[in-house]
Amino acid sequence: MTRGIGFAGTDASGSAGDVPSIGVGMLGYAFMGKAHSNAYRTIPYMTCPPLVPRLVSVAGRSETKVAEAAKRYGFAAYSTDWRDLLGDDSVGLFDNCGPNSVHAEASIAAAESGKHVLCEKPLGRNADESYEAWQRVEKARVKHMCAFNYRFVPAVRLAKEIIDAGELGEIRHFRGRYLQESIADPDFPITWRLQREIAGSGALGDLGAHIIDLGRYLVGEVSAVMAVTRTFIPERPGGKVDVDDAFEAIVEFEGGAVGTLEASRFCLGRKNALAWEINGSKGSIAFHLERLNELQVALHDADSKRAGDGFRTVLVSEAEHPFWEYWWPPGHMIGWEHTFIHEIHHLLTAIAEDRPVGPHGATFEDGYRAAEVCDAILRSAATGSREQITYRGG
To answer: At what angle do helices 31-46 and 338-353 cross, to 10 degrees?
Structure first.
């Protein structure tokens, strides 16, 4: 049952001047729910969007918690059943921030009820579930995006521009890692993220999916993998762990590049250490999320035919850099939360102007293809063999 809380929410009038609005219904109110809600509240006054987000209702299992979240984030109503959002004609965009086990189910149901869909990664618990989500949502002819928000870091987008312009030449290496210390304490209790039935996989789907997507976005399709996984603490307070705590993989790309991928939630001292490096025949670029506004660049000296002086740091905050038309004078930094603002603004533009979400936004097809890589990593770890990846078409 949906309940109002006596708060009008963002853009209660339904418009901001001459800009039309779109009603948002969101499933989930915790970590990602907060990040997405912050973006919806910020977008109208910072970006001059093509559609103004109007926060209609948020859904979650705990009535006490979802009611508090609705009031704090600015939603006009809340519900303990996400299906209530699908019957609400004022909801035009369904934002799925729920646990992995409802990513596919709720996204499909929302699309088939006529809502545009934004779904947090991973798209599904495995490739089969992700493929079904892509196929059925695509058939519904709505806009769909899988929320790989790191595509919307200004430094990452600048790297994409450098690569697409041919400045790195032939791409030869991609090395990506995502390291945290979040569950290194053996007394950390069991959560849904540590249970295969709900999460699908562990560090692989939670963290690894991001670097898989960035590898695909920046370098190209992954064609084969060899991998190992480990579960360091198989039992925790409250239950058994049946997902990976860490993985390591060697990958091959269709374009000929080779690379490595790794993710772990057991790296003491690492808080949110997503990093990657790309090496090409004409130069290299590198990025670290904990220095989000910087891109490391080393370009070959074409005149002397000799390598240059190594990496230089580009502070990605100039007016001509990606996304900076929304923000501050050069050198006035932005943060992690701004990636969601860029991402959702991109989706709103695709909806308002009937533009494709790709190639810069990750579609449900991108979510599915990342899931195929995840599944291949698990298969390789189980068999000890090199796994060739076959992608299903539309």
So the answer is: 70
